[in-house]
Structure formats: C-alpha cells, structure tokens
Amino acid sequence: MVLCVKHLFGPAAAIFLSAIILLSCFTNLIPYLSYYTFPSSPYMSPEPVPKCDIFRGEWMPDPSSPPYTNETCAHIQNHQNCLMYGRPDLEFLKWRWKPDGCDLPRFDPHKFFQVVGNKTLAFVGDSLARNHYQSLLCLLSKVALPKDLSDPERPHDGNKIMFYEAYNFTIYTMWSPFLVRFEEIADGMFNLYLDEPGDWLPSVPRFDYLILSAANWFTRQTYFYERGQLVGGRYVALNITTNLTSNRYSHRMAFRTSLRALNGVGFRGKVIVRTVSPMSHFEGGAYDKGGDCPRKRPYWANETAPMSELERDFYNEQVEEFNEAAARGMDMVLMDPTIAMLKRPDGHPSRYGHWPDQKRTMYNDCIHWCLPGPIDAWNDMLLHILAG
Ligand SMILES: *[C@@H]1O[C@H](CO)[C@@H](O)[C@H](O)[C@H]1NC(C)=O
Ligand SMILES: *[C@@H]1O[C@H](CO)[C@@H](O)[C@H](O)[C@H]1NC(C)=O
Ligand SMILES: *[C@@H]1O[C@H](CO)[C@@H](O)[C@H](O)[C@H]1NC(C)=O
Ligand SMILES: *[C@@H]1O[C@H](CO)[C@@H](O)[C@H](O)[C@H]1NC(C)=O
Ligand SMILES: *[C@@H]1O[C@H](CO)[C@@H](O)[C@H](O)[C@H]1NC(C)=O
Ligand SMILES: *[C@@H]1O[C@H](CO)[C@@H](O)[C@H](O)[C@H]1NC(C)=O
C-alpha cells in the first residue's frame, strides 16, 4: 500500500507529492531526451576574467569537500539527509563546480555575512527552493546559527523566517510552488490563477534580495484561470473549448505574472530568477515504476548530459520571461545552475531519503539533492552574484 505521505508526514511531504505528480509524465518524457545546446546565459561574471560565464563549466575533483555534514548542520530536511540514511558511496561529495575560464570560489560564510549584513533575503518557490535555503543555512552554520522567528500561523516548512542577530541578516522562505495564487481542489489537483501573484507579493517591500524559482509543480493536474474565468488546464478534463492545455503555458504565465507584479509594486531590491533543476535523472523507469538515479559520478566533459524536452522548454521560458522583465529596468540576475546540475545525476537522495522499509510513491528520489551535495554550489553562485 502506498501511504498518504501528505497526511502522515505533514506538509513536508508535499514536496514528494510535487515530484510524484510531476513525474506522471516521465514515462512519456524519456523517449524525448534530447541534446540541447545552451546559449550562453545573460549573466556574465564581473570579475576576475572578462566574460567568464560562471554557469558554463565542469565539475572538478575537490578532496576538501564537503563543507558540512549531517552532524554539523541541524537544518537538513530528513528526506535530503543522505548521510543519515546511510548512503554508502561518498564520492558525490568530492566535486566542485569550476566555470570555464575563471574560478568560482567555494562559499565563504564570513564574506557572505559581510555582503548581506543589515539585509533580508527571500526564497520564493517549491521544495527545490527549500533545498537551496537549507544548503545556505548549513553553509552559514560554521559561523553563526539563526534564531527561528517563523510565523506560527504559517507552520508549513516551506515558510520560515530565520534571523542572524549578529549580522542583522534575515532569510525568508515562502512556499509558493506555482508562484501565482493557487488552490488545491482535490488531492493533487489545483486551480491556478495565472494572472494573480501568490501570497508572497505583499511581503516583498521588506526584501533586499528575492530568489524566485518554480517548475516541477506545473506537471500536476491543474486548471488555468485568468480574470477569474476557467481558460484551460493540464491533465484534467475540460468542459470548455480552449487551446490552453499545455503546462508550458501555465509555467510561462506564472513567471510573467510574478515578474510583472514585482515591477508593478516598484520592487527596489535585486530579483534573482533561478532556472530549472533537472527533472529527468530517473533511469530504467518512471519515478513510480522503479526508476532510479544510480550513477555515482558527474558526467565528464566529454559526455553530454541528456535533457528532456520539458526541461528545455521550461528553461527557455524562464530565460525569455527573465529577459522581458529585465528590459523593464528592474535589478535582475539570472541564476542558471541548470547545466551544472544536469551533469550531477549522482547528487540525488535516490533511496537514501528514507529508511529502506518506508514505503513511498517516489521510492527513489531523483529530484531533490542530498545535503551536503552538489546543490551547495548554488550558494557559491549566489554569493558570487550578491558580491558582484
Ligand atoms: C549522521 O550520519 C551517520 C552515518 O553516516 C549516522 O551514523 C549519524 O547518526 C548521523 N547523525 C545525525 C545527527 O543525523
Ligand atoms: C548595520 O548597519 C549599522 C549602522 O546602520 C552598522 O553600524 C553595522 O556595521 C551594519 N552591520 C553589518 C553587519 O553590516
Ligand atoms: C537592521 O537592518 C535594518 C534594515 O534591514 C535596519 O533598518 C536596522 O536599523 C538594522 N538594525 C541595526 C541594529 O543595525
Ligand atoms: C464543467 O461544467 C459544469 C457544468 O456547467 C460545471 O458544473 C463545472 O464546474 C465545470 N468544470 C469546471 C472545471 O469548471
Ligand atoms: C490560442 O488561440 C489564440 C486565438 O487563436 C491565439 O492567439 C493563441 O496564441 C493560442 N494560444 C496558444 C497557447 O496556442
Ligand atoms: C572522457 O573523460 C574521462 C575523464 O577525463 C576519461 O577518463 C575518459 O577516458 C574520456 N572518454 C573518452 C571517450 O574520451
């Protein structure tokens, strides 16, 4: 029997559901894995080598990793605590991201606090945003531990407020898996209000930095609403005539609405749009059909990491919506770890995100990232962006 993850484990497990439903299309996706050549990303490193794109490079051996463990960081979500669940191969911890033509220093918590002192950083998104946020807390834990000022009215573990008193630095995570307003109308089925920003928008005046990300939840069963009217849907029966039946549409509109809303409220901080985290690392079957991510090393430079059509389309939409919004003059940076992460099929929990006898629909998690793990590089990139 498949347990109802959500009710048994609380909202934390909604993450799993997210991935689970997203994967309902995986059986279809696998044959379409394609090899996609990325344009160079719009964000160029300001230093030290001109025109170095920190998002294009390779993973290089790094014996000094990892920077923390399950013993030294108390903020690791159980389902990503691969060391605790006994993952035996630890090679996946021994790599660092090396951009072509320059270096990306490993995360330096002292430098980070210097940059963010007296400021507020927010993560808005789904469980991958939370994965990123927990990596940041772990990397900072060498230097300081935060006070939890989370709102008890918002107990979801995707809604947190963490305050670093010595540096007057605050981190928010805000659970908004579709970025726009949504309602769950049945188990795993949602109404999306594609022209209405999520409930994070009223909080943004207090943020200096806002990291927006989304993708995975658009593969769920969803109805699309605009101006309060049903206009389309994906993986649902529709009783209207419409051509809006692709999650490419809902995904694009969610980014468009969110970025326009930020512009509309005159957001003065820096907006960081974080691109797709790979959804296609399952091999040998779908997420619920025994698929797994069994690789034990990154793809080498002479190998091409496969990318699904869905990932490529979501990626392109994010870049396009980013470019459109950036043209309006907001302070925006595209944080583009997609290629780096495509090369890390070895960095997921797989079956080390729970005990072996725990039944889960996505028994092998090839969506989230182990902590510590390759997702720590997202914070190397983040510090580089904020410091530059
Ligand atoms: C950390 O992981 C090790 C196994 O690698 C385990 O023995 C230990 O109990 C874990 N500690 C915590 C606090 O999770
Ligand atoms: C915060 O601002 C105060 C003055 O406004 C300054 O004295 C202090 O050094 C700043 N703290 C950090 C960590 O930047
Ligand atoms: C903390 O930072 C806020 C701005 O985020 C500032 O208004 C406040 O004065 C700072 N507090 C101290 C004690 O520096
Ligand atoms: C489909 O049409 C029926 C009858 O008009 C209506 O009750 C129902 O709410 C509609 N479904 C959706 C998703 O709008
Ligand atoms: C749907 O049809 C309308 C009108 O024909 C067209 O303008 C629009 O681009 C179409 N949308 C999609 C997503 O194909
Ligand atoms: C690809 O690169 C790896 C690591 O550098 C090397 O071991 C392997 O032999 C190379 N394979 C080919 C086909 O060149």
TrEMBL record:
Pfam families assigned: PC-Esterase, PMR5N
Family: Belongs to the PC-esterase family. TBL subfamily.
Domain Trichome birefringence-like C-terminal residue range list: 104-384
Record membrane topology: Single-pass type II membrane protein
Subcellular localization: Golgi apparatus membrane
Source species of the chain: Eleusine coracana subsp. coracana
PROSITE patterns found in the cross-reference section: PROKAR_LIPOPROTEIN (PS51257)
InterPro entries: TBL, TBL_C, TBL_N
Transmembrane segments: 12-35
Name of the protein in its database record: Trichome birefringence-like N-terminal domain-containing protein
Cellular component GO terms held in the UniProt record: Golgi membrane
Domain Trichome birefringence-like N-terminal, chain residue ranges per copy: 51-103
Keywords: Golgi apparatus, Membrane, Signal-anchor, Transferase, Transmembrane, Transmembrane helix
GO MF assignments: xylan O-acetyltransferase activity
